[in-house]
């Protein structure tokens, strides 16, 4: 099922529905709403309650307090919309959550972002979580036709396909586009961001070939960014990766940058400085990183696992949980260097897409609320 541009017409005297979005403050969820000042306000989303931890950091929403049947029964809303945050919950608790939503006369909607959790080495828990959620949901959404097909095969359910909205704010997109247009010289910069080594990442499968390929290209640089918890004895320390990166940096084969988690502005500056961002994923489904690159005009080289290539124009190389084709990696990097594709998403495109995305959500909410009542 594809997105619909026009939302369901509101009935006279009705109020916008109140949505318990899980979470509410995530950039993806914020950009499901109409763009401020350009359209009438849509559904009202409750703010994220303080998480169920002793000393939450400012702005922290994890773990979501809304995913508690007691919270559901104690608060007023019309519909719950689940996106993220259920990674660690027992499937029986998720079933109890949806049951509590229904027992109190509310609707339950889920956007299936991940069909294979990028944080879980073993897929069984996430599969069981989806088995508890997907059949019970009143409506399902997902981001790509391939994901919708998989949902249909696995659960016999139809999911409305709504594309991922922009990640980077539109003003920053405009500045980045201007900077890229003015950048006439400089090396062709390939970026591989190992971050904090999610379970779905396999950077050491790529790095030797990637470094050799980039070294063979004229005026090209491979930049590798790593978080300190990978490189300096932190929770995600990887001794083999650290050793290879330090050695390659000492030999001048890579430009190594070690830092903590980047705030948004620094992250956007970094992504905007790249000509090609290589995603080292061996499994996954969709990618917000990919969308941020597109917002900033940076070409993406994505693996063939998951449905990354259905999100927007990307270069691809063969990589999944059991296999990598290093020849396809080499060829794709060389193509990017030779052709310098510009496959970013422009501001006008993102603005129109956001209107469509907001309208599609309003329609889904209206359909669910028309079924369960308010």
Automatic annotation (TrEMBL):
The UniProt entry, under InterPro entries, shows:
Glyco_trans_4-like_N
Q: Which UniProt keywords apply?
A: Glycosyltransferase, Transferase
> Which GO MF term does the entry hold, naming one?
glycosyltransferase activity
The reply to whether Ribonucleoprotein figures as a keyword in the UniProt entry is: no
Q: Where is this region: Disordered?
A: 1-20, 40-59
Q: Where is the Glycosyltransferase subfamily 4-like N-terminal domain?
A: 31-164
Pfam families tied to this protein: Glyco_transf_4
Key word Mitochondrion present in the record?
no
Record protein name field? Glycosyltransferase involved in cell wall biosynthesis
